[in-house]
Amino acid sequence: MAKPASAPAGAFFANWRQNIIYIGFVVIFIAFALTLNDKGFLNPNNLLNIVRQTAMIAVMAVAMTFVLSAGEIDLSVGAVAGLATVTVAMAIAVAGPFGGLLAGLATGLAVGVFNGWLTTRIGIPSFLTTLAMMGIAKGVAMWISDTAAVPILSPSYSWVFGGGSVGPVPVLMFWIALIAGAGHVALRRSGFGRRVLATGGGETAARYSGIDTASIKFRVLVLSSCAAALAGMLYAGRLQSGRFQLGEGDELSVIAAAVLGGTSLFGGKGTVIGTIVGALMIGLINNGLILMGLEFSQQLIARGGIIILAVALSQKRR
Amino acid sequence: MTAPAPIAVRMTGISKSFGGIRALDGVDFEVFAGEVHALLGGNGAGKSTILKVLNGVHVPEEGEIEVGGQRLAAHSPEAARAAGIAMNFQEMSLIPTLTVAQNVFLTREARDARGMIDDAESVRRAQAIFDMLQVEVDPDALVGDLGAGQKQLTEIAKAISQKARVLILDEPSTALSVSDVERLFVFLRTLKAEGVAIIYVSHRMDEIARIADRATILRDGRHVITAPLSDLPIDVMIEHIVGKKSKGLADVARGDVTRGEVLLELSTVTGPHKPEDVSLVLHRGEVLGLAGLLGSGRSALARVIAGVEPAVAGEIRIKGRTVAIRRPSDAIAHGIALVPEARATQGIIPAHSVADNMVMSVVGRISPRGFVDRGRVRAIADEMISRLSIKTASRDHAVSTLSGGNQQKVVIGKWLATGPEILILDEPTAGIDIGSKAEIIRLVRELAQAGKGVIVISSELSELLTACDRIVVMADGRAHQVLDRAELDDPAETNPEHALQAAERRLQVEIQKALSIKEASHG
Asked: Pick from B89, B92, B116: which is nearest to A190 by CB?
């Protein structure tokens, strides 16, 4: 075999702990392909389903990568996505698809500014701010919708936001690609991304270097809420309705996707590509466990175990 | 004579207080363009504070700053940088999760045509700076993976990459090899020739003598003298630095030494980073001091003995028996207690009560059947409060309500509760007022008289001289010599204050000598 190619490959495997997510993804994929082939795992439709089910998690997880990299956390994303489905659906009913789009963005912006303001100006840790916001967002969503589903009767909205497909490729795939590409470039190549990583890597040092760390934290929290609202818009489009239960509990999958992908919960380290693969891996595991015919209770246990195993393997040995 | 150089920095009447303590009191400070200006002073003299004021990190209560003839309107790091001031922060401004090049150019990243960050270009520029300095640092390495010396070079590269008109170097050489320091000096001379004003802080008089043109000495937050270096031979410098700050310590009597059996013996002990090849002996009833500058390996030696960073070579004997100290619990089991340097993070839990802090290390011992014996807790706390005369409203008050000196006594009490025979105190009086300092020193003497062996680390030489019977002078991780405290006294001097000052000057000279021995041996 040609030797030159083995050098980067060697480096890849020498840092196998760092790259465990990619290795794990391939290993699990092959395992499912071999054991679940007769149940239709490799059927293109099934594979595209994985993408459809993962899209919202992936969108939120890209923003979560920024939040975690800055040394903060956002627990409110699932509830904010749910709230956004309701506000979008209600706005479409009175103002059409474009009004719905604006309502969704406004929801994300409002929640994000509030989260950021409480965290950076009042000084409440983002863990608490967003934990409280989780309840508030869900409560508001239940209240304004009377806990009922709000139908969306705009085919064009539904097509763009999650329902449509171009040939065999679901529109959601384009959303993933768009958000992942923008997120990757922003984190790796923009001044903003570098400041985010610096803030999470060493806040005092970042401040001494002339970085306005409070403003960085404010902005990542706004970014995260806006991404959550976008995820809500995708939920609403895909299911043609707004419901407060949509997105419930997603914050755990979102954080797990980012951490599986190699983003540090302690800040300073993050990769958008890893996060996307982490999100796909969670979707892959969910799909495989369902095809295996496991009960929901068993799925929960197996999924938890696999995530713990993957994160444990990625830890640096002391 | 050439025409007087233009003034690069003029600070007038700068005052700054922290929590009622005056760190700077009407200080004037002036630096010319194209000179290396040494800023000297002991611990707490106000060097760091005035530099942080100049650099915009601290806002002064009074005073004005002019840079290049322009009055600084705002006090912020951004304003200082805009005025052309760059400073290294003793590793404070590096982000461990970014690479060397990313750190050097943080917030000033190289951009490509589309405005995106161009890391490859940053790496090239960082490499160019290191080439210019002729030092070996990998621009692609993660800062968190670097050793202290490489971090320091990264800090320096970060400061000089800003092409500042005023370059502040705060102890840039503590972790550098002799040859790296030499190359840094060559570079500083080039910068100087280009008209850059360089403010250089160091405790190493030999370095100052080689690189600086003028020096300003601060003491107790006040300006003492500014003069060309030719007017400041080393002994004069030391005299100005030491001044009369020994006041309050001079009246602590050292009492008689009744040196007992050998408690602790190290032979050629080497730690994971430092110390190197240290041998020493500690007797029952004596106080042994470790003197040396930052980075000399004093605290590292303490950590080795206490099992925090176990020794990699050499032998540790306790009362003649060779012991293996692999972790802190081994050391505690052998009767060793370390009162660590950072009181707030390593010594106490501020929100917990005096009593709860005091029993923290002996909870297992006073909890038969798993329940904490409240009576024993009260007994231990009350005993320590009276024995160490800790001033607290009650044993149930939170430690955070106590003064710094009394907090330190709580930490000492906590370790005394374990019944140690060997007590190591790392900077026990850092951040404590002078009255409490004398009290802590007196306490150290009493512990030794009660039959314990005590090791004291302190950057304040007057304290070491007051507390110790013997002093080990350390430099570069090695123990250079052991001085008998009595040898440093001048029998003719009867005024205790003057005697202490004289002894401090002598110890200073010995420490500086140890540094130059290191330089000679490195050749």
From this structure: B116
